[in-house]
Design brief:
Number of helices: 5
Distance between the termini: 32 Å
Oligomer: single chain
CATH class: Mainly Alpha
CATH topology: de novo design (two linked rop proteins)
CATH architecture: Up-down Bundle
Largest sheet: none
Number of strands: 0
Number of domains: 1
Length: about 120
């Protein structure tokens, strides 16, 4: 069931894969005793996919757009935490996470824009 869902839905696959990468990175942060940033990053990053998943059972097109916008907002918060890690001299490299998040953001933006156009043109 899970594999088919992810195979058919690029944003779920991307956000899930990204969340797994973030979990691994946050475990590294926690081993370095960087608990506060690890916790904030983990919450925001895993929320992207959770909101995208919730959008799959939206009650209306407007509700779908709303839930996907929440996922996009969580992605923006995640970007903030990753930038902090990137610019902090004592944090492990997170370039691969930033690049993966860029992919997630592009897909989320495309979904939201297309859904809005379809809602307006209805």
């Amino acid at each position: 069931m899970r594999k088919e869902l992810f195979d058919k839905n690029p944003v779920l696959k991307l956000s899930f894969d990204f969340a797994l990468m973030v979990i691994e990175y946050c475990e590294q942060l926690e081993s370095d005793k960087k608990f506060i940033v690890a916790r904030q990053l983990l919450k925001a990053a895993t929320s992207i996919g959770a909101n995208a998943m919730e959008a799959q059972n939206a009650e209306s097109k407007a509700d779908f757009i709303h839930k996907m916008r929440i996922a996009a907002k969580e992605a923006e918060e995640t970007q903030y935490w990753l930038w902090l890690c990137d610019y902090s001299p004592n944090y492990p490299n997170c370039d691969s996470l930033i690049n993966k998040l860029d992919e997630v953001n592009k897909v989320l933006g495309s979904i939201v824009n297309t859904a809005r156009k379809n809602l307006v043109n209805k």
